[in-house]
Amino acid sequence: MSTNERSLISRFAMEVVTGCIALLAGIVVVLGALEYEIGWDEAGPQPGYFPFYVGLIIIVASLGVLVQGFLNRSRTTGEAFLTREGFKRVMAFFLPLAAFTAGSYVLGLYVGTFVYLAGVMIFQGGYRWPFALTVAGGITVFFFVLFERWFQVPLLKGPLEAFLGIY
């Protein structure tokens, strides 16, 4: 790591946070499974059987992450997990995706998909407008035909679809 690139989050801190979150998730899964029977009966596994053991696996794996993190602490203390430059790259991916999510809720999934794909292709990928708009339009039409016509699964629509009479 260069001297002008400071660590925003250390690797050790991220390993501990990840281990704790996974441990909590495993505990929640196990406790949820215990609301049902977790054994076997004459018909086979009861409703909580598989979630219970998956939760136990998550707990064991998270404890492994925590132990490994603490055992390697002296080696990873100064190591960066996230730097400013890395954070910028993560945000370059996350912010358009968050805008896509919010935009799809307001504009509908198909318009949101078109805008997201075209925007990412033009502004991040450096593609020319005609190519990006053609690809985004083609993919959007493909998804519309696939979900709405073939699978007959209506997805979230917005004001444009209502204006065009596409329900």
From TrEMBL:
<keyword id="KW-1133">Transmembrane helix</keyword>
<feature type="transmembrane region" description="Helical">
    <location>
        <begin position="92"/>
        <end position="123"/>
    </location>
</feature>
<keyword id="KW-0472">Membrane</keyword>
<feature type="transmembrane region" description="Helical">
    <location>
        <begin position="12"/>
        <end position="34"/>
    </location>
</feature>
<dbReference type="Pfam" id="PF07331">
    <property type="entry name" value="TctB"/>
</dbReference>
<keyword id="KW-0812">Transmembrane</keyword>
<dbReference type="InterPro" id="IPR009936">
    <property type="entry name" value="DUF1468"/>
</dbReference>
<feature type="transmembrane region" description="Helical">
    <location>
        <begin position="129"/>
        <end position="147"/>
    </location>
</feature>
<feature type="transmembrane region" description="Helical">
    <location>
        <begin position="49"/>
        <end position="71"/>
    </location>
</feature>
<protein>
    <recommendedName>
        <fullName>DUF1468 domain-containing protein</fullName>
    </recommendedName>
</protein>
<feature type="domain" description="DUF1468">
    <location>
        <begin position="20"/>
        <end position="155"/>
    </location>
</feature>
